[in-house]
């Protein structure tokens, strides 16, 4: 189903039109925790998603003005030194390494059931609006492949994005089909919105679930920016010294996604993500014929 979202700017009062592809993930919830399949495809007792010198879990996000900046995060093992990313205008030929700009990465350690990892991130700044760039990220004496993306326009224009509900359960088994078909239907999507419960986080195999989420999206996550919201399944219960409990955001969240601290007030269509128990209100209009 595709509908249009009309958002009004103030100032100026200009209307933008965005077409939205809805990719529903209900099939994953139907089959999860049934007798037919486990919540992940990783065999019990097997370590499939251990970090290595080869960069993985590459994901493109926004951390500032999407017309002039972009952010990327990725994972390696803890032996990697001098993590960095390179970016260049997307040339037609293979000489990207001759014109690239190198940006040093910030890193944070995270140890989970699959071992100790470093999660790295950079923000590319000073980019040109509506321009295709290529980038790659470093590992241990190696690089990722070159990814590419287009910056947003700095003027009012039509764009499309894809909205995903809960990936959450049996992620690689089912969400992989959903995200790949959604992109096949909307290959020019400017971004993807993941509206919470990206993983289940209730089976003590959180890193396997996140590994499957990144497996399902694959290279697409490195080329189409993601807007991510933390759902209730991205929060864990922690017992306090007085015996009470509090909800804490998954330790995977901040290391995996480089996100803006606050929103811009002068943007065209604003995507606001939050974790609330009250329903959100959206105003929709159908796109013109």
Write a structural description:
GO terms for molecular function: acid phosphatase activity; metal ion binding. The protein is α+β, with helices and mostly antiparallel strands and 289 residues long. It has a domain at 44-156 and 198-225 and 232-266: Immunoglobulins (Immunoglobulin-like, Sandwich). The protein is 13% helix and 32% strand. The protein has 4 helices and 16 strands. A 6-stranded mixed β-sheet has the order 13-12-11-2-1-16.
* Percent of residues in beta strands: 25-35%
Distance between the termini: 15 Å
Structural class: alpha+beta
Mean pLDDT: 81
Helix content: 10-25%
- Quick one: how many beta strands? 16
* Model regions low in confidence, pLDDT < 50 over at least 5 residues: 1-18, 26-35, 264-268, 274-289
Radius of gyration: 19 Å
What is the CATH homologous superfamily assignment of the domain at 44-156 and 198-225 and 232-266? Immunoglobulins
CATH architecture assignment name of the domain at 44-156 and 198-225 and 232-266: Sandwich
Please name the CATH topology of the domain at 44-156 and 198-225 and 232-266. Answer: Immunoglobulin-like
GO molecular function, one term: metal ion binding
Pfam families: Metallophos (PF00149), Pur_ac_phosph_N (PF16656)
Protein name: Purple acid phosphatase N-terminal domain-containing protein
Keywords: Signal
């Amino acid at each position: 189903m595709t509908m249009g979202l009309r958002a009004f700017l103030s100032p100026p009062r200009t209307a933008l039109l965005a077409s939205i592809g809805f990719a529903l993930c209900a099939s994953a919830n139907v089959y999860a925790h049934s007798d037919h399949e486990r919540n992940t495809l990783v065999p019990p007792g097997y370590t499939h998603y251990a970090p290595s010198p080869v960069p993985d879990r590459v994901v493109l996000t926004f951390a500032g003005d999407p017309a002039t900046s972009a952010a990327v995060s990725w994972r390696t093992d803890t032996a990697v030194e001098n993590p960095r990313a390179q970016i260049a205008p997307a040339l037609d030929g293979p000489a990207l390494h001759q014109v690239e700009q190198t940006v040093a990465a910030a890193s944070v350690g995270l140890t989970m059931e699959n071992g100790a990892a470093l999660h790295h991130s950079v923000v590319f700044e000073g980019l040109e609006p509506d321009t295709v760039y290529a980038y790659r990220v470093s590992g241990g004496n190696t690089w990722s492949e070159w990814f590419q993306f287009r910056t947003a326009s700095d003027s009012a224009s039509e764009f499309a994005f894809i909205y995903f509900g809960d990936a959450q359960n049996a992620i690689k088994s089912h969400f992989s089909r959903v995200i790949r078909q959604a992109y096949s239907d909307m290959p020019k999507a400017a971004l993807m919105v993941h509206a919470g419960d990206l993983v289940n986080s209730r089976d003590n195999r959180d890193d396997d679930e996140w590994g499957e989420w990144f497996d399902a999206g694959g290279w697409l996550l490195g080329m189409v920016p993601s807007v991510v919201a933390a759902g209730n399944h991205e929060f864990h219960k922690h017992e306090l010294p007085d015996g009470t409990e509090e909800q804490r955001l998954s330790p995977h969240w901040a290391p995996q996604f480089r996100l803006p601290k606050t929103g811009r007030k002068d943007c065209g269509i604003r995507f606001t993500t939050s974790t609330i128990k009250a329903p959100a209100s959206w105003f929709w209009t159908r796109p013109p014929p």
